[in-house]
Design a protein that fits this description.
Blueprint lengths: L5 E5 L3 H13 L3 E5 L2 H10 L4 E5 L7 H11 L5 E5 L4 H9 L4 E4 L4 H44 L3 H13 L3 E5 H6 L9 E4 L4
Parallel strand pairs: 1-2, 1-3, 3-4, 4-5
Antiparallel strand pairs: 6-7
Helix pairs in contact: 2-3, 5-6
């Protein structure tokens, strides 16, 4: 099932909130639009968000303050700063403070769409890498336990079962020298060199 992408849009102008919501809903995203930085921070505390779109100039709490608070609460959430008052200084500060991107109003919806798609791809890749690392760690532990068991009773049948378990767990193996040298049954040319791929 396709994972829902949740986007929180923050802008004090109603027309901008409506425009952002309509664009993003058309692209199939789950969107919530709020009018202030304070409300946005409460939403971030209580919910799970994939991306934040934050206006730079807002009364009470501006976009840079929202960015700073979000990075304290949930540093992994990408924040895109949007503004009609672009300056080099604010752009540099936003990027230094951890903004993923900085878009100047009025911007083309396609420009926003491209930035969001890049974020989504990166998030999915990070999840996949994290999953693969956990799986590799799990399989390495299984392999170590099997190796210990083989050394305790390394009969030919146990060696074969060990090899089958390695294949089933996704580990790569060929020759069998290591186990054979420590085995009480050096019958097969069972030289085992287990090589594991690392990420």
């Amino acid at each position: 099932m396709k994972e829902t992408v949740r986007i929180l849009a923050v802008d004090d102008e109603e027309i901008v909130r409506e425009s952002l919501s309509n664009w993003l809903l058309e692209d199939g995203y789950d969107v919530v639009a709020v009018e202030s930085g304070f409300i946005a921070i409460e939403k971030v505390k209580k919910g799970n968000w994939n991306i934040l779109l934050v206006d730079l100039k807002m009364p009470g709490m501006d976009g840079l303050q929202v960015l700073e608070e979000v990075k304290k609460l949930k540093p992994d959430i990408p924040v895109i700063i949007i503004t009609a008052y672009a300056t080099v200084d604010t752009a540099v500060k936003a990027m230094k403070d951890g903004a993923y991107d900085y878009l100047v109003k009025p911007f083309n919806p396609e420009e926003l769409s491209i930035s969001i798609k890049k974020i989504i791809v990166e998030q999915r890749l990070r999840k996949e890498v994290s999953y693969l690392r956990k799986e590799l760690k799990k399989r390495t532990v299984i392999s170590s336990k099997l190796m210990s068991f083989c050394l305790m009773d390394s009969s030919p049948i146990i060696l074969v079962l060990y090899a089958m378990a390695l294949i089933a767990s996704g580990m790569v193996f060929m020759q069998f020298s290591k186990i054979s040298r420590m085995s009480r049954y050096p019958l097969v040319s069972t030289q085992s060199l287990v090589s594991q791929s690392s990420l």
